[in-house]
Amino acid sequence: MALQKMTAKKIIEKKKRGEKIVTITSYDYSFAKIVDDCAIDLILVGDSLSMVILGYKNTLSVTMDEMIHHTKAVTRGVSNSMVVGDMPFLSYKIGIKEAVKNAGRFIQEGGAEAVKVEGGAKICPTIKAMIDADIQVMGHIGLTPQAIYEFGGFFTQGKTVEAAKKLIIDAKKLEKTGVFSIVLESIPWQIAKLITKSVNIPTIGIGAGSHCDGQILVINDMLGLFTDFKPKFLKYFGDIGTSVRKAIKNYKNEVERGSYPDIEHSYEFPKEDLNEIESWFESVEIEEEIK
């Protein structure tokens, strides 16, 4: 039976039914197609592609055009999962009009069904403008990587009473503004549990414990493809990086030995015409035709 397209409304309904929401990042057609085939609820085209795909040192360098480019690739491979475009640094905090325009690009050009923005209460007026423009929005609080220089590094957030209170208030304000879900990143699981209980919209955890309504991981991280660093919350669900390296080394060895390609992996000229072409090749006719 064909799966039905996942939507923001259905994501919220899953929380009401107590069903876990499974989300993951993806950045290209091939992986998106595999993820979609696995019946994942939501695919985030994350600005983490800045690091794991484009090789930048953090998420701040990726541009709107690069994000749209990859979102297009992902949406071409998806039939069932909901696709959310991650709004990059400086695309939504430089003015509400510009923010709505950029969010609209993810929908109109990229084919996404929603956008994700980082930030709490301060970003709510911008989120409201996006929602007023009929754009679905996912929130993101806790460790927000675009504020990495403000935080001074990739550190756990909400570890003091005051910081925890702020996270809970931010979550409730985001819900009141109209986001359909909130990513909770790198916060103590007890605080994530309180936030999850306090809002009627789904919380999606990454480094926020098991009491969130759903979880998200970067696909290149959980498959062992990107191993530059390993945060505490990351579990390797596969070791594709090792498999890829082994395959490439095997390919290199076979090419160098001359064992690849063999006859099985080569095209053949019709046998009945082979003598004719070989005779022509060795004759003087070829020299005359070149002239």
CATH level 3 topology of the largest domain = TIM Barrel
Query: Could you tell me the number of beta strands?
Result: 8
Helix percentage range: 40-55%
| CATH level-4 homologous superfamily of the largest domain | Phosphoenolpyruvate-binding domains
Total count of domains: 2
Describe the structure.
Helix content is 44%, strand content 13%. The protein is α/β, with parallel strands linked by helices and 291 residues long. It has two domains: 8-240, Phosphoenolpyruvate-binding domains (TIM Barrel, Alpha-Beta Barrel), CATH 3.20.20.60; 244-290, no CATH class. An eight-stranded parallel β-barrel has the order 1-2-3-4-5-6-7-8, surrounded by seven helices. Helix 2 crosses helix 4 (64-76). The longest helix has 18 residues, at 240-257. The relative contact order is 0.11.
Q: Brief description of this entry?
A:
The protein is an alpha/beta fold. Helix content is 44%, strand content 13%.
Write the layout of secondary structure elements.
Elements: H1 8-16, E1 21-25, H2 29-37, E2 42-45, H3 49-52, H4 64-76, E3 82-86, H5 96-108, E4 114-116, H6 124-132, E5 136-142, H7 148-151, H8 161-177, E6 181-185, H9 189-198, E7 203-206, E8 214-217, H10 219-222, H11 240-257, H12 271-282, H13 285-290
Parallel strand pairs: 1-2, 1-8, 2-3, 3-4, 4-5, 5-6, 6-7, 7-8
Keywords, separated by commas or semicolons:
291 residues, alpha/beta, TIM Barrel, eight-stranded parallel barrel, 13 helices, 8 strands, 44% helix
